[in-house]
Amino acid sequence: MAETFLRRRGPELFGAATLIASALVFEALIRGGVVNRYIIPPPSDILLAFERVIVEENILTRCRDTAFEMIIAGGASVLVGVPIGVLLYRSALWRRAMEDWIGALAAAPIVLAFPLFLVLFGRSPKTIIVMGFVHGLAPIILKTVEGLASTRTVLINVGRSLKMTQSQMFWKILLPSAMPIIFTGIRLSWTFVLITIVGIEYLINLGGVGQLINELAERYDLPGTYAGICFVILVSVLFFLALERVESWLQPGR
Amino acid sequence: MAAAGSLTSSSIAATPRNVLALRLAVAVFVLCVWEGLSRSGLFYGEVIPSLLAIFASMGKLLIDPIFWRNLQVTMVETVASLAIGAGFGITVGIVLGANRFLMRAFEPVVYYLSPTPRIILFPVMIMWFGVGPASKIALGALSAFFAIALSTAAGMRQIDPILIRVGRSFRANVWQMAFKIYLPAMRVPILNGIRLGMGTAIITVLLGETKLSNQGLGYMIMQVYTRFDMPGLYALLMLVFILAGAVNALIGHSARD
Q1: Model pTM?
Q2: Which residues of A191-211 are buried (b: 16+ CB within 10 A; e: fewer)?
Q3: Which candidate from A96, A174, A236 shows the least CB-CB separation from B117?
Q4: How far is residue A64's CA from residue A166's CA, in Å, rounded to a whole number?
Q5: Chain B residue with the nearest C-alpha to that of A86
Q6: What is the CATH number of domain A52-250?
Q7: ipTM strictly over 0.90?
């Protein structure tokens, strides 16, 4: 039984063991004075700092603030992006004219325009939310168009043979069929939104977890800074895992 | 797809001419709305400057040696970060793509770390590499690494086994296999990875410059913002967007050829 488990999970265990071994090697090198502890704190200090960061720095409250901004920006991206995608799908001319521009918007370094947004919306969560929203819009529009355009012909023919109205066709055939691809767009979009929100929080020193990392770094609290960064990475990974789970649940055949 | 397309309700055909006309119409409409808002007095000061002022600022920027010097700094940092990120990324990608055991052991780590907000690592990079260009290069390299490593690993796994067998049947040595079989077969995924990596490297380098620097386009953006020179800020951002888009399109084009 244990042998089967080891054979099946061997590579993953090896990966985890390598990471732990690397941490131990760093611990030894730092404690031995080979690596300067004022540049890289010992991993044990970082682990101990987790409690301080959670209790004293209120990281959970800050996570709540970031999550609030995420929900507003991500939700607005969906509420605006999906209808725009539907409208573009309905007009071949508009779709062909606008798809490249929306693709360019998705690739543009919008986050760099934060000084402009600061002028327009002030140094407030509004700026962070609007930037997250703008950055998250393009993937949803593009994936909504792609999802609706890839609806199987047989499904549309079934709808027509049942003499469905345009509205019934949309709600009963097109939208359910496009849902998995639209969700891929939502996953991409929310990834962009999260990166933008945490990044802007850090850059303008305002809001949730991004601001905390900036504050800890400015206080030169090294174990705290590293613990904060590890915490944000952990939360991000859990967030992406959850989104992936929902996505694979929506696409059981893939 | 074709049948799905028949559900669209467009009365005008999507011919290239109509598409071009619509794009021009949209561009003219947006510019007119912008100019109208700028002249309306609804916004404080020069929050929405006139198009004339923005283009005048752009012209001034293009003949300003300070702009070119800062552009040069950003370009050097981006190219250096891309070179380092690509070097490590391609190596790690080949190792992960070639070995199933290592792929299962380490690829999930690379995969799940890749979409995390990397700018938060900037304080660490400053501690390791100082406040100069090295910290921006390191952060840019780290950003580029993940996209390139994942793309290379995926490309490595997609190589046609027949090509590998042909190489072996010719008794090609390791170097010949690498340079005659593997790398040419992986050109497109590697270039795509570099394109993605470059996009993130440019953004990260520029963001690093906005946070803590005394040179580069990111620093220049903060200087213009501090002076509340709105036409200058719009002009500079437009130039950065155009440059980033042009480089992105250039690499994308070479990946398609």
Answers
A1: 0.83
A2: bbbbbbbbbbbbbbbbbbbbb
A3: A236
A4: 41
A5: B8
A6: 1.10.3720.10
A7: no
